[in-house]
């Protein structure tokens, strides 16, 4: 396992165990990282990668074990100690106060200069810093106004305000377009040339093999392989390590092996001739910081079709879902469903016409974690009736139990709080609530995010079954492989517009180019969703 | 079940902590804490007639607190019960003086209903500000309390002033004895019946209607309910108005019952105590009934202390405040202690 | 006119100090509804301190120490016991109001107002029309400027704001939001003590039960109105007292035609208006809203 050097690795974890309550997130990890190289730490969702990164950075306190830097132990669970030792972490979901300017965000984490500053001095200081790192942005602009890629650049620049020796990037590629990933990797290689050691937390094999010098694999909180040389690895061997044993069915796609290869069911279906179930016509919405506006977007949704929405996160997908649900204000355009203009109807009325939604955030928008399962389940049907109607909780609990059993939810009882369920089971509860009654249009926003392979397969199966019974499905995902695998048709969103449309077999290069706006109209087929 | 037990024990422990802190304060201020607590216990429950006095204070508090429970459950931090209580009392008194001379069967119900309407309307404007413009209801309802207090002083020194009254205390003309729903001891079958109806009605509303279940979801996670297609303003305005109406009802009861007239600046801590009761009860109606008895006892002790024991009634305010300080505390240590015990090995 | 300015400064200065206390807490991420209680402790401690020690400096010191202790109690309950800041703050307010009444009664044996032989040092004749104002009025602009520098032009100020806006970001850089909030509340305690001292001894040298009469809550409203910016918050507080002074002026001009009690309500109405406007400007309520024990997140 050791790559042959004589000196001990500069950073070392010894028998590190991290637990949250009863849950063991990391179990006795022994691993070392050598100076001046790019190390990848890979694993599935829930393998403990983020916990690993946070433990090294001192944000999470290990229950046992040591962290050593150049042979000296640093105090565990102390960010200060880790930063003194030159460790900096860039979080997956960025962690800078959104109202701060870039300069302020740089300043508040540094310890280099005196306490007092002037506005212009601050700007000068950090403009230079950003320039050194090739981040092009005005240091006076606010964090919340930055595009995702710039924000990540700023986060990395923030991590380098002190002389960091070890930079840990937690899932940095999740929010980037394919070309953004390329630029990130360029930046990482330049940092390596400057002598910075980088640990990249990744979960896509393609990316690991493109950048890493060594590969460390975590599975279920345990160390499976430490410091493998990239040259010694091929994709299949690595995926076996990540998943454990020869890849299970459906697993290939989940770890990104299926790049570009159309799966068996993703064949072009004949749908264009049928009148769509729902149609967004030239929609423009009012944007918000967390949900950029739609800009004259037109989408048609057909019965018996899964329409995939690809795009880098933050390009209007959330506004698209909110517009369909009546939760976003329309500035222009209209939404037709079943031949009627429903633009002015609210979500409750749209639900009565067969609209169902699996929201982006399972734990906040999908479920009330502190409420009982039966209450979560009963919410939609209670809302459909009069508010002052008499209810029998006993009967609702029995009905919920029957529904959960149909969807093979694993749970203790209907009065259990929803927060006690695992991600996959929680998603099943949402499906059992949403795919109930007369369903005509299902919006599934990131339905498999954070789920393991089994639950992912379950979600795909449920959506396909709904499609086969004649419902229209709109599936938003940031995982292209997932979309290639499930979507019957694919649209690409960029800056709130629908910029391209594809049918299977999909071509990774062309979809990726459309996502970044490198090439537009020319490479896509005519937009069937466009205004007639 | 163990969750309920944990909450109960946690509540009990923090109330004890609060009382201990009060004991320290009393001792530091030069009173004997033991004497103080003994006198409070005596004044609240043990003395002759103590229980009926405890009930006299507990019932209006219970009525206001059930309304607070509803709005807190729905996730709206309506801490304006005091102002709604005052406006209810004012509206009821105004209606009664306008209808003066009418038969009892007309005047009393109409006045009490208008008291409820007054409370509901005073809760309505913060609700509208909240749902139309997103104005924070904590500040608006709080300011509403001060404004209502000043309106009360204004009407009792102006429009509704008792011309024969002494200069000492501003108050309205006393109601004719026939219109009163209780004597000045403040306990009567009418008041008990109203409280029972409110208690049962609110229990049904919260536990046995779609509104109650959905309101609970709205309070714990409004986002989730929004994605279910709920019109949040419906829950908001309804819970604001119901809680305002109940506080107004309590105000009307105070006027038509024990007080027999409107007094400037009367019961200035009624609303805050009702908020406390709702929190101590962990927002359950049955718990509210129990907690109302406890705080009703304290309220009756506040009157007893200076007269019978020669101790300052501020002691009761301090106890209430200390309980408020600690009642929402969550100690991970205590939770772990009890949840471990509740688990089967 | 100059009388009017003096009146606004006199009634506005305690409000500015207490609003600044709330502002620091707000920036550090706490809704400070205990201002009222801490302020009245400041009032009471100052007057009793003057009476018992005969030294104004000692009295202020006692007031500061007691207000810091009360702030630390609030901090402990909110940060360590995870209590709801709004309810705990209201509790502390009741604690302060009741406790000061009890203290005054036990020391002086009656519920009547307590007067001190002398009050805060005055500016003196060299200030002309402003001679009767206390030194705290003159110090106020300096305090506002100092806080502006501390909060907007030092790294510590950025760290404090980060704790309020994104505690996770602060924590992952090794900044402890709990400690920063303790600092914020303690500085707030000193400011409340000064505000209370100014209210009790700036002109009248008197302590009466419940004498703060909602000024703490009005200070809190000024924080919301002023978007927790040091200068804007101070201006909002002065605006509230300006409205109050206009009300009194109107009373003098129009007599009983304008009901006195309704004029007293003007600052509260202005507060509601201010919160409404700031809500409209910044798109809705944000902050420690709601009853967190029942919330999912």
From TrEMBL, chain A:
The keyword Signal does not apply. Residues 11-245, 278-520 form the ABC transporter domain. The keyword Flavoprotein does not apply. Pfam families: ABC_tran (PF00005). Belongs to the ABC transporter superfamily. PANTHER family: CARBOHYDRATE TRANSPORT ATP-BINDING PROTEIN MG119-RELATED (PTHR43790), GUANOSINE IMPORT ATP-BINDING PROTEIN NUPO (PTHR43790:SF4). This is ABC transporter ATP-binding protein. It comes from Xaviernesmea rhizosphaerae.
From TrEMBL, chain B:
It is a multi-pass membrane protein. Keywords: Cell membrane, Membrane, Transmembrane, Transmembrane helix. The keyword Cell membrane applies. InterPro entries: ABC_transp_permease. It is found in: Cell membrane. One of its GO terms (molecular function) is transmembrane transporter activity. The chain crosses the membrane at residues 12-34, 54-72, 84-100, 106-125, 137-156, 191-214, 235-256, 311-329. This is ABC transporter. It comes from Xaviernesmea rhizosphaerae. The lineage of its organism: Bacteria, Pseudomonadati, Pseudomonadota, Alphaproteobacteria, Hyphomicrobiales.
Automatic annotation (TrEMBL), chain C:
GO terms for cellular component: plasma membrane. It holds the Pfam family BPD_transp_2. The chain crosses the membrane at residues 30-52, 58-78, 85-108, 128-151, 217-250, 262-279. InterPro entries: ABC_transp_permease (IPR001851). GO terms for molecular function: transmembrane transporter activity. The keyword Transmembrane helix applies. Its main location: membrane. It is found in: Cell membrane. Keywords: Cell membrane, Membrane, Transmembrane, Transmembrane helix. It is a multi-pass membrane protein. This is ABC transporter permease. It comes from Xaviernesmea rhizosphaerae.
């Amino acid at each position: 396992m050791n790559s042959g050097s004589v000196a001990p690795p500069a950073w070392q974890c010894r028998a590190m165990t991290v637990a949250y309550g009863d849950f063991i997130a990391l179990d006795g990890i022994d691993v070392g990282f050598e100076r001046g190289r790019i190390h990848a730490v890979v694993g599935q969702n829930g393998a403990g990668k983020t916990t690993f990164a946070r433990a090294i950075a001192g944000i999470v306190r290990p229950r046992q074990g040591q962290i050593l830097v150049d042979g000296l132990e640093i105090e565990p669970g102390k960010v200060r100690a880790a930063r003194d030792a030159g460790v900096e972490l860039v979080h997956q979901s960025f962690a800078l106060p959104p109202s701060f300017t870039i300069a302020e965000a740089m300043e508040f984490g540094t310890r280099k200069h005196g306490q007092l500053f002037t506005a212009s001095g601050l700007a000068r200081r950090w403009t230079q810093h950003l320039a050194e790192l090739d981040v092009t942005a005005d240091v006076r602009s606010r964090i919340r106004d930055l595009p995702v890629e710039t924000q990540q650049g700023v986060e990395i620049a923030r991590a380098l305000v002190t002389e960091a020796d070890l930079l840990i990037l937690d899932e940095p590629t999740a929010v980037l377009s394919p070309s953004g990933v390329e630029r990130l990797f360029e930046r990482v290689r330049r940092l390596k040339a400057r002598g910075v050691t980088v640990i990249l937390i990744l979960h896509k094999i393609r990316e690991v093999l493109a950048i890493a010098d060594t590969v460390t694999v975590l599975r279920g909180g345990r160390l499976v392989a430490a410091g493998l040389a990239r040259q010694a690895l091929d994709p299949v061997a690595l995926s076996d390590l990540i998943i454990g044993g020869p890849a299970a069915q459906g697993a290939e796609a989940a770890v990104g092996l299926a790049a570009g290869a159309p799966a068996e069911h993703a064949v072009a279906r004949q749908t264009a001739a049928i009148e769509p179930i729902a149609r967004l016509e030239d929609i423009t919405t009012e944007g918000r910081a967390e949900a950029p506006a739609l800009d004259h977007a037109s989408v048609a949704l057909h019965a018996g079709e899964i329409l995939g929405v690809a795009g880098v996160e933050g390009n209007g997908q959330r506004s698209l879902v909110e517009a369909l649900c009546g939760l976003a204000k329309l500035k222009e355009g209209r939404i037709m469903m079943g031949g009627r203009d429903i633009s002015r109807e609210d979500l409750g009325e749209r639900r009565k016409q067969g609209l169902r939604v699996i929201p982006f955030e399972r734990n906040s928008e999908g479920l009330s974690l502190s409420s009982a399962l039966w209450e979560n389940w009963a919410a939609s049907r209670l809302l459909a009736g009069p508010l002052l109607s008499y209810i029998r909780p006993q009967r609702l609990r029995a009905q919920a139990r029957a529904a959960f059993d149909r969807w093979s939810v694993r749970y203790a009882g209907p009065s259990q709080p929803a927060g006690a369920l695992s991600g996959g089971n929680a998603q099943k509860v949402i499906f059992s609530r949403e795919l109930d009654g007369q369903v005509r249009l299902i919006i599934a926003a990131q339905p498999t995010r954070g789920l393991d392979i089994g639950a992912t397969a379950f979600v795909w199966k449920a959506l396909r079954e709904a499609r086969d019974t004649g419902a229209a499905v709109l599936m938003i995902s940031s995982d292209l492989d997932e979309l290639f695998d499930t979507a019957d048709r694919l649209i690409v969103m960029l800056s709130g517009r629908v910029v391209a449309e594809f049918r299977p077999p999909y071509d990774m290069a062309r979809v990726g180019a459309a996502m970044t706006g490198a090439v537009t109209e020319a490479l896509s087929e005519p937009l069937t969703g466009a205004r007639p | 079940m163990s969750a309920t037990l944990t909450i109960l024990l946690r509540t009990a422990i923090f109330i004890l902590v609060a009382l201990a802190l009060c004991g320290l304060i009393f001792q530091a201020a030069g009173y004997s804490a033991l004497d103080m607590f003994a006198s409070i216990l005596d004044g609240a429950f043990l003395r002759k007639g103590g229980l009926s006095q405890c009930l006299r204070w507990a019932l209006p508090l219970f009525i206001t607190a059930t309304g607070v429970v509803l709005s807190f459950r729905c996730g709206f931090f309506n801490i304006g019960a005091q102002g709604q209580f005052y406006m209810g009392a004012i509206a009821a008194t105004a209606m009664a003086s306008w209808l003066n001379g009418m038969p009892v069967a007309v005047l009393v119900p109409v006045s009490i209903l208008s008291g409820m309407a007054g409370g509901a309307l005073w809760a309505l404007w913060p609700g509208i500000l909240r749902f139309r413009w997103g104005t924070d209801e904590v500040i608006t309802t709080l300011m509403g309390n001060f404004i209502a207090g000043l309106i009360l002083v204004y009407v009792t020194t102006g429009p509704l002033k008792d011309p024969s009254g002494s200069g000492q205390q501003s108050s309205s003309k006393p109601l004719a004895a026939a219109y009163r729903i209780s004597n000045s001891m403040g306990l009567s079958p009418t008041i008990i019946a109203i409280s029972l109806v409110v208690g049962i009605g609110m229990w049904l509303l919260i536990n046995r209607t779609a509104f109650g279940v959905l309101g609970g979801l709205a309070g714990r996670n409004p986002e989730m309910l929004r994605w279910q297609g709920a019109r949040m303003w419906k829950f908001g305005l309804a819970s604001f108005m119901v809680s305002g109406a109940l506080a107004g009802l309590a105000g009307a009861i105070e006027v038509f019952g024990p007080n027999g007239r409107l007094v400037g600046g009367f019961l200035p801590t009624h609303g805050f105590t009702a908020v406390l009761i709702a929190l101590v009860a962990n927002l359950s109606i049955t718990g509210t009934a129990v907690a109302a008895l406890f705080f009703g006892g304290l309220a009756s002790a506040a009157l007893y202390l200076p007269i019978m024991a020669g101790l300052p009634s501020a002691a009761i305010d301090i106890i209430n405040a200390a309980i408020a300080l600690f009642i929402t505390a969550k100690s991970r240590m205590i939770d772990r202690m009890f949840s471990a015990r509740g688990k089967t090995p | 006119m100059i009388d009017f300015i003096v009146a606004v400064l006199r009634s506005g200065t305690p409000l500015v100090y207490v609003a600044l206390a709330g502002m620091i807490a707000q920036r550090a991420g706490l809704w400070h509804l205990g201002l009222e209680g801490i302020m009245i402790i400041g009032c009471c401690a100052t007057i009793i301190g003057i009476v018992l020690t005969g030294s104004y400096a000692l009295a202020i010191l006692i007031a500061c120490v007691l207000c810091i202790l009360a702030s630390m109690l609030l901090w402990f309950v909110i940060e360590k016991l995870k209590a709801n800041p709004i309810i705990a703050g209201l509790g502390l307010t009741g604690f302060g109001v009741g406790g000061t009444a009890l203290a005054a009664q036990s020391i002086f044996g009656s519920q009547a107002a307590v007067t001190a032989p002398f009050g805060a040092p005055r500016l003196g004749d060299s200030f002309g029309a402003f001679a009767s104002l206390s030194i705290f009025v003159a110090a106020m602009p300096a305090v506002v400027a100092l806080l502006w520098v501390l909060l907007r032009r030092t790294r510590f100020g950025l760290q404090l704001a980060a704790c309020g806006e994104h505690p996770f970001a602060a924590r992952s850089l090794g900044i402890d939001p709990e400690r920063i909030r303790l600092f914020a509340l303690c500085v707030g305690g000193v400011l409340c003590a000064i505000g209370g001292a100014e209210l009790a001894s700036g002109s009248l040298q008197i302590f009466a039960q419940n004498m703060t009469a909602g000024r703490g809550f009005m200070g809190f409203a000024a924080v919301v109105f002023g978007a927790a910016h040091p200068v804007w918050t101070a201006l909002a507080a002065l605006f509230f007292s300006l409205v109050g002074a206009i009300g009194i002026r109107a009373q003098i001009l129009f007599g009983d035609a304008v009901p006195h009690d309704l004029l007293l309500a003007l600052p509260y109405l202005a507060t509601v208006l201010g919160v409404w406007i700031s809500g409209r400007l910044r798109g809705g309520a944000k902050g420690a809203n709601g009853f967190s024990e029942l919330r999912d997140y």
